[in-house]
Amino acid sequence: MSSKNPRRAAFDILLRIEKEKSFADILIDHELSKDIIKGADRGLLTELVYGVLRRQGTLDYIIGQFSKQRTEKLELYVLLLLRLGLYQCFFLDRVPVSAAVNETVKLAKELAPRASGFINAILRNADRNRDNIRYPDRAENPAGYLAVRYSHPAWLTRQWVEQMGVEEAEALAAAMSEPPPLTVRVNTLRVSREALLERLTAEGVSCSATRWSPDGIRLNQSGQITRLASFRDGLFTVQDESSQLAPLFLSPEKGDRVLDACAAPGGKSTQIAQLMGDSGEIYACDVNHKKLRLIKDTCDRLGIASVRTFTMDATSPSPAIKEVVFQRILVDAPCSGLGVIRRNPEGKWSKSGDDLLQLARTQISILENLCKYLEKGGTLLYATCSTSVQENEFVVDTFLRDHPEFVAEDLRGLFPELTPLFTERGFFRSWPHRDGMDGFFAARLKKIK
Q1: Where does it live in the cell (predicted)?
Q2: Is residue 135 assigned to a domain?
């Protein structure tokens, strides 16, 4: 259902996410493409959907402080309306509390009329007693405190505390609950970064060069970028700075044959093509044949001809690469996405710690299958957008234990200008709170036998 009311549209989107496990960005883009919601209401819709998803844990905790009925026992319509109302009351400064309450109750009378009084009471009571809300004790239960204060699953905050200690885990938790930066990668086949910075500025975009990626630009204020002439002219593509570094670590050379095994939507494939001067061969493969269209569309827009797309399950032998030998292989493995939950906040509520072991098994299966397609002396880059050790160091160590023909290369010696981004073992690990980019991991493996 489309609506001129951004709050009703936000409710409809949140309902679909709960029922269908849909992706927020796709649903928001679809709603805005109808061009029914106008002006500032477009921004409000986006803010409400992402804000509620990012702060869902905190919102549910607040509801639990004031509702006699357990949060998980509330009807879905009632729970979503309470989340929407409380998010506006507690996290949106530009919306007066009175307006937030009144608009939510008005919506409740339409969607859940029998519960409108209950919703009104909870919202007003929470606002009056916001200073009396009891949160978990930070000293006694640091993971529980971080989970509620910054709205993340408790199993995940426990993992962060174990990885980096309470102080840094809190900085990470805070960063992961904020909106992410919007970063693009320059299409160096057509324009330099300096020239594109000037072009974007002339188009009214506030932007700056990224710190680590030599081809990245951060857009501070841009509006809808697909409407920019520079986007239509294929001068850039959207890609986070951490993701832009992975193809650099692969170090493709002109004339190489490269396999990008889990390629959709194609950001790294097209960047590899740029680094190779659009020469050689790039096999961009994905298990989902529908996603190959995204890669083709991006290649067409950027004017790239060296990328060929194939459907392939990377865990098993495929006719797409039968008897083909590669100089470089990129495995951007399917993972939990824990490093990008500020971009896809709906995802953190549907995952559990138990998922990580199964994901690690799949990741190891992919490496086991693909390593035989790499020539002697070739480079394999294993990468994920996860913060978990289980999907990263554990996977690499398990693979190396079973494959003595491979060694892990120390990225510190190969890329000294990026040394602050590498671990003591020479792996790449970026963190939103430290580095201003998504949580990412990469290990460079060399086939020596």
Answers
A1: Cytoplasm
A2: no
Residue-averaged pLDDT of the chain: 95
DSSP 46-74: HHHHHHHHHTHHHHHHHHHHH-SS-GGGS
Q: Which domain holds residue 213?
A: 184-238
Task: Kindly state whether residues 266 and 316 are assigned to the same domain.
Answer: yes
Q: Which runs of consecutive H residues, i.e. helices, occur in 21-153?
A: 24-33, 40-54, 56-66, 76-91, 97-111, 116-128, 142-150
Question: What is the spatial distance between Cα 14 and Cα 59, in angstroms, rounded to a whole number?
Answer: 14
For residue 43, report the phi and psi dihedrals to the nearest 5 degrees. Answer: -65, -35
Q: Which bin fits 339, alpha (ψ -120 to 50), beta or left (φ > 0)?
A: alpha
Q: What is the mean pLDDT of residues 252-281?
A: 96
Same domain for 287 and 431? yes
- Interior CA angle at 339 toward 337 and 344, to 5°? 60
Same domain, 313 and 351: yes
What is the pLDDT, as a whole number, of residue 159? 96
Out of 220, 238, 256, a domain closes at 238
pTM for this model (two decimals): 0.93
Is 262 annotated for ligand binding? yes
**In this predicted model, what pLDDT tens digit does every residue of 416-449 receive, in sequence order?**
999 999 999 999 999 999 999 999 999 999 999 8
Indicate whether 353 belongs to any domain: yes
Q: Is 39 annotated as a binding residue?
A: no
- 268 annotated to bind ligand: yes
**Residue 219: pLDDT above 60?**
yes
117 assigned ligand-binding residue: no
Judged against a pLDDT cut of 80, whether residue 222 lies above it is answered with no
> pLDDT tens across 272-307, in order?
999 999 999 999 999 998 999 999 999 999 999 999
Spot the catalytic one: 89, 207, 371, 385.
385
